[in-house]
Amino acid sequence: MKDPYTGSCLCGALCYEIKGEPITVYNCHCTECQKVAASAFGMSVRVGSEDFSITNGIYEKIKTIADSGSIKTGFFCPECGTRICGKSDNIKFVVVKAGTLENPNWFFPIAHIWTRSAQDWFPFADGLPKFSEQPENNEELNKLWQKRSL
Ligand SMILES: [Zn+2]
Ligand SMILES: [Zn+2]
To answer: Which of 9, 21, 82, 129 has the greatest number of CB atoms lying within 10 Å of its CB?
Structure first.
C-alpha cells in the first residue's frame, strides 16, 4: 500500500491526493477522453469520492455530455488548463486522469473501453480485454481490477 497517492496539474498549482486503493484503472478511447487528453485516449483511475481530496489550489468546472449520454463534470486548473479528474452525476466515484499522478506508473490499466472510437493506428498489443463502448455493468471493470495479476 502506497497510499495516499498524490498528483497535480501541469503548473503545479492544483494538487490532490487519493487515500486507499483505486476501484479500477482502464484506458478510455471515447471521443471526450481524446479531446480532454489532446491525444489518442485517456487513462482513468476510478476512486471512491470519499477517497479523493484537493490538497492545494483552486479548480474550475465544466459540464459535458459523455458518449455514454451521462452528464459529466470535469475539474481543471484555471491557470494551466489541465484536467485532473471528472465525475458523472449520481455516481459515487471520481475518475482521476492518470497522467496527472506524481508517478503514472503506480497503476496499470486492466481494459480498454470505447474501442469503437479508438484511433485506427492504435495497436492494442497488450492483450487486455476490450469493450466497444462502456461496459453495460459498471462493476465489470472493477472485477477485472480485482482479478489482475499483481
Ligand atoms: Zn495548473
Ligand atoms: Zn472516455
So the answer is: 9
Give distance in angstroms: CA of 43 to centre of ligand 2: 8
Q: How confident is the model at residue 150 (pLDDT cuts 50, 70, 90)?
A: low
- Find, among 132, 139, 136, the residue nearest to 30 by Cα: 132
How many Å lie between the centroid of ligand 2 and the Cα of residue 112? 10
Q: How many CB atoms lie within 10 A of CB 116?
A: 12
Ligand nearest to the CA of 29: 2
H helices, E strands: number in the chain: 2, 10
Q: Model confidence over 62-114: pLDDT tens digits? A: 999 887 788 999 999 999 999 999 998 878 899 999 999 999 899 999 999 99
The ligand whose atoms approach the alpha carbon of 37 most closely is: 2
Domains in the chain with CATH codes: 5-146 (3.90.1590.10)
Q: Left if phi > 0, otherwise alpha if psi is -120 to 50, otherwise beta: which for 12?
A: left
